[in-house]
Design goal:
The protein is mainly beta. Helices cover 6% and strands 30% of the residues. The chain folds into 2 domains: 79 residues, Alpha-Beta Complex (Type Iii Antifreeze Protein Isoform Hplc 12), CATH 3.90.1210.10; 93 residues. It is built from 3 helices and 8 strands.
Length: 225
Amino acid sequence: MTLGVVSAPAHTAGTAAVGRGPWKARRGRRLPFYSTGVLVLVAAVVGCAWLVSSAGDRTQFIAITRPVAAGQVIAAADLRAVSAVNDAELGLVAAGQASEVVGRTAAVPLLPGTLLQPAMLGEAVFPARDRVVASLALKPGRYPQHLAAGASVSVFVSQSSPAEGGQSATVSPARVAAVVLGVDLAGDGQGATVVTLELARKDAAAVAGAPAESVMVMQIAPGGD
């Protein structure tokens, strides 16, 4: 397996590819890798959501209703008001400021249920230098049935090495930790579901160029709605 660089051409469907552009994979197109800007961890974004069990005075704040990609313009349908504890340290955006949010762009991927903070708005700065985003085209059975954005996963990539007599010997699969940014059930137009992941740059070589049949995604922590 080989890892492409930013200027390298994308791989064919069924593999991770490297390049620049919107991270959402499109049906029938080659699948992208991205790596620019400063990462605001998806786990941290999700972690500030739904402070429903805390004590204290409650106020109406803005929450995200559906996935919004970094760099995407926020629409009114992406927002709703929710009641949460007024925590000054989080600096949440009040529901009364919704009109000021509509039309602005998301600086980081916003997942459903996220309570909006000012730092999440502005020029897209995702992911960080040491992180990349990969899209994989996976056949049914190669990923959890109800996989959703925000989930933490382990990506296993089967490997083989030359053995005596010219035969290939199977070795332990590489294991890569990642966070799911999106699951496109419409897929790549060839019967595969496109799963978009955020992972460490140092781990990218383990999945870039890997045949679809050698990749298995397993969920280790929940995410999504």
